[in-house]
């Protein structure tokens, strides 16, 4: 993981928001590690909203409308899903301190979830933080094929409709690059972030 790291045992929600506004975000080495550290990548993952790409196969899936998509109805359950081990992710970095911080941000109106439901069963979702005209994606999970991908498409549609300018993914993966995610050098990212922070907080 490229970027600076510094241990921070006592992070408050207000400190966390300030950190996002200047390009930092917290992580833990594992779900069992009580410590949190700040990360400031030299190369940042960003999905340009105007360049968001949906594959033909995913567009076909979305037209079938396989999931009921909801926003902010089960934030902590989405965090639980993101923190749970999965075949492709045996361990995660979401520890109890991170859960508590982001749950508080949700209560304050800054952290949000996008959820895929089958009836009353949560089968996928993602969560992140909105600040200014930026949305900082944190994590996603799927219990059904394409559930988190469908959530991401709905997230982008919502961000575009409400005037957001920046979708920060922290890092890029091949999965995210298939949607148009790009690697941005730190200096370039700082300009994008400053522009997004100059906006009043947009309603999610």
Written overview of the protein:
The chain has 204 residues and is α+β, with helices and mostly antiparallel strands. The chain is 35% helix and 27% strand. The protein is built from 7 helices and 10 strands. It has a 7-stranded mixed sheet with strand order 5-6-7-8-9-4-10, with helices on both faces. A hairpin with a 2-residue loop joins strand 6 (111-118) and strand 7 (121-131). The longest helix is centred in the C-terminal third of the chain and has 15 residues, at 147-161. The model is unreliable at 1-5 (pLDDT under 50).
Main features:
disordered N terminus; alpha+beta; 7 helices; 7-stranded mixed sheet; 27% strand
Give a count of the beta strands, DSSP E runs of length 2 or more.
10
Instruction: Let me know the largest β-sheet.
Output: 7 strands, mixed
Name the helix and strand elements from N-terminus to C-terminus, one letter apiece.
EHEEEHEHHEEEHEHEH
Number of helices: 7
Helix content: 25-40%
Mean pLDDT: 93
Shape: globular
Radius of gyration: 16 Å
Q: Ends: how far apart?
A: 30 Å
Residues in β-strands, percent: 25-35%
